[in-house]
Design goal:
single chain, 285 residues, alpha+beta, 4-stranded mixed β-sheet, 3-stranded antiparallel β-sheet, 13 helices, 40% helix, globular, disordered C terminus, FRG domain-containing protein, FRG-dom
Length: 285
């Protein structure tokens, strides 16, 4: 993937501002969504795919049983609400965590693995959505929205099989905002991506659409500078992961300067917008 190595916080900040400037967009605000990785070598693949084997066939079983046993949770009526809730709590899904905020993404790129290079990724979701199948594009245009809500997705595709059939022979990627399940989702400006098939990975989409995204490599020496700036700005676990888990994570990092907080993830990657206990927000996007 094409990524530019930055040499300082100032260079990165200027690059993000330049990339975020709307160009020929109907939207007044920036149209980018961001994702941070604590290790630049980590891949943009779903937690579902990490089950390996015929993981795509397991998706319906995971969702069905999650809905069955999560009887006290009422996220909404659609499968997209349940997928978002499952992702939020660590259920393996086809979804990936993103955020509208580059600072949130940078938090998750710098809060762990300080001795390794990190990465920041930005995708222009408006341009990405121009490639969607007609029914999905029409729903966005009808609402005048940049990204979908769970209700909007459900109006076009009420189940995952119907969502997949929209692709035909052209797999696609779409972005939607999860319901405000708790303060963490709100504070992280969370966005989720969904691929048209559980077997189709964001990594593949990025490789096929190099003009729709930008990446920045964050050398380990620069991660420390970025981390200090974020802490000064209050972009910390205490804000992004409200509650005792976030407080404990902040204190652990604060009182172990220079040591690698390797987190609790399966592969150590850290992104933005996710759960405090999983890979991407165990990490975030």
């Amino acid at each position: 993937m094409r990524s530019h190595e930055v040499s300082s916080w100032r260079e990165l900040d200027d690059a993000i501002c330049e990339a975020s400037r709307p160009r020929g967009s109907a939207h007044v605000h920036p149209t980018l969504v961001f994702r941070g990785l604590a290790r630049s070598t980590d891949a943009h693949v779903s937690s579902l795919s990490r089950l390996r084997g015929d993981y795509a066939a397991l998706e319906r079983h995971l969702v069905r049983n999650f809905r069955k046993y999560a009887h006290r949770a009422t996220p909404g009526e659609t499968v997209w609400d349940w997928l978002a809730l499952g992702q939020h709590h660590g259920l393996p899904t086809r979804l990936l965590d993103w955020t509208f905020s580059p600072l949130v993404a940078l938090h998750f790129a710098t809060a762990s693995w300080p001795e390794e290079d990190g990465a920041l990724l930005a995708v222009d979701c408006e341009r990405a959505h121009r490639l969607l199948p007609g029914p999905l594009r029409e729903e966005l245009e009808r609402e005048g929205a940049l990204v979908f809500t769970t209700e909007m997705l459900a109006r076009v595709a009420g189940d995952l099989d119907g969502f997949g059939r929209l692709a035909g022979d052209r797999p696609f990627l779409t972005f939607f905002e999860p319901p405000s399940l708790d303060e963490r989702v709100v504070n992280q400006s969370s966005v989720l991506s969904a691929t048209s098939s559980p077997a189709y990975q964001v990594q593949e989409w990025l490789a096929g659409h190099p003009d729709l995204w930008r990446g920045w490599l964050l050398p380990a020496r620069v991660k420390l500078e970025i981390r200090n700036r974020l802490d000064q700005a209050g972009i910390t676990e205490r804000v992004l992961l409200p509650g005792l888990d976030g407080l404990a994570a902040w204190l652990r990092r604060y009182y172990t300067p220079g040591e690698a907080d390797r987190g609790s993830s399966e592969d150590g990657s850290t992104t933005a917008g996710g759960s405090a206990h999983r890979e991407e927000g165990r990490t975030g996007a």
